[in-house]
Design brief:
This protein has about 240 residues and is α/β, with parallel strands linked by helices. Helix content is about 40%, strand content about 15%.
Amino acid sequence: MLSGGISERLRAVRERAKAAAVRAARDPGEVVILGVGKRQPAEPIAEAVRAGLDHVAENFAQEARDKIPQVEAMLRETATASPCWHFVGQLQRNKARYVARLFDCVESVDRIDVARELDHRAAIAERHLDVLIQVNLSGEVQKGGVPPDRVGPLLEECRSCERIRVTGLMTVPPASAEPEASRPVFTALRELRTELSDRPGGEALRELSMGMSADFEVAIEEGATIVRVGTAIFGPRERE
């Protein structure tokens, strides 16, 4: 059972993240806490933003289409600045029109057709998007993501897009009750970024989005710049 309210839980997550960064001789300011609002109502998300959460993620385009305007309206009532919105779910081309309009960063690009559709929709919306390439390091067929050996070619293909900027890599490790089980995957993503650094576009890969509520401290120790934390901040989801 989680104790405390959202502000207390957010504070606890920040303290744990800070401790993990210090253990790795890293600046805690390098790590973004990304609160995942998947299947949470608008009210607790707005509460977390008012408590200082400045990056929020959603997994489903249609859920976000309804929820983000609700959250934004609640924040306007208290003159609270909007968060940076991240999309972290698997993305189909037909949902790109919502995502390009609502989100600031898309962390789950794994196909050039999706990247080009986001680019097209961002141009229509007269805005730019940061995107991360999702990498499937576990080989699990049910997970999205491009195989490691396809990341370089996809990165190069994305260079033809004018409205999206590839700024990093994202991965989801296999589910495990042991946080340490995720460490090899996190290490592999960091090493892949290093390998890509001399490829066209590789110099811009500053972000590593990896680690969730169960293993984000291990991810930070291995170089994560974004950790995706849902349950540890918001508690259990409304529905699974």
